[in-house]
Design a protein that fits this description.
- The chain has seven helices and six strands.
- With about 190 residues, the protein is α/β, with parallel strands linked by helices.
- The protein has one domain: Rossmann fold, CATH 3.40.50.850.
- Helix 2 runs parallel beside helix 7 and helix 5 runs parallel beside helix 6.
- It comes from [Torrubiella] hemipterigena.
- It holds the Pfam family Isochorismatase.
- This is Isochorismatase-like domain-containing protein.
- Keywords: Hydrolase.
Length: about 190
């Protein structure tokens, strides 16, 4: 058995953004279902590294306050699973909030990061850019990230614009169902 060189980042799928009927993104049900499939598939392959990212903010800046119901993750690392990490952040970019994270991942042999989660144009895009800047290959899972409608654009339009911007920087855009089939076939995240 060889270790995977790929890590899955599950970014900010938290109660306020995905579950709370007053605060959640418009496509929360689709996103939660897709992310659930992604996490389950990643856990089934040999041996995955899954990084669960949890955003926190001060009460005056938003509702994702440490310890609150809104702050809780929808998907959590399995207790005792050595290849599942919980990483907290206070900025959009997980790598900026955790300066040693890139080195830690590289020491584990990680060269490729796959991203999914909430909000496409905020933390998913910023973390993907941070991974690219740190020298990782990056793939973003189409239909496994989403956001709010904003500035006259639908969440879907924003998702596609984020994918185009990341692709222009060298990231790959992979429909999540295609990724699941590849992982199953290879018995590894790829």
């Amino acid at each position: 058995m060889t270790a995977s060189t790929t890590a899955l980042f599950v970014i900010d799928i938290q109660h306020a953004l995905a579950i709370d009927s007053k605060e959640r993104i418009p496509h929360a049900e689709r996103l939660v279902a897709a992310a659930g499939e992604v996490v389950d598939a990643a856990r089934a392959v040999n041996p995955p590294l899954i990084v669960f990212v949890q955003h926190e903010e001060k009460p005056e800046n938003g509702c994702l306050v440490r310890g609150s119901e809104a702050w809780k993750l929808v998907f959590n690392p399995d207790q005792g699973a050595p290849n599942e990490l919980l990483v907290h952040k206070t900025t959009r970019d997980t790598f900026e909030s955790n300066p040693g994270l890139a080195d830690t991942l590289k020491q584990k042999g990680i060269t490729h990061i796959i991203t999914c989660g909430i909000q496409s144009e905020c933390c998913v895009e910023s973390t993907s850019k941070g991974a690219l800047a740190a020298g990782f290959q990056v793939s973003i899972l189409r239909d496994a990230h989403s956001t709010y409608d904003d500035d006259g654009k639908s969440a879907i339009e924003i998702e596609r614009a984020v994918e185009q911007r990341l692709e222009a920087l060298g990231a790959k855009v992979v429909p999540y169902k295609d990724a699941l089939a590849q992982w199953k076939s290879a018995n590894a995240l790829c």
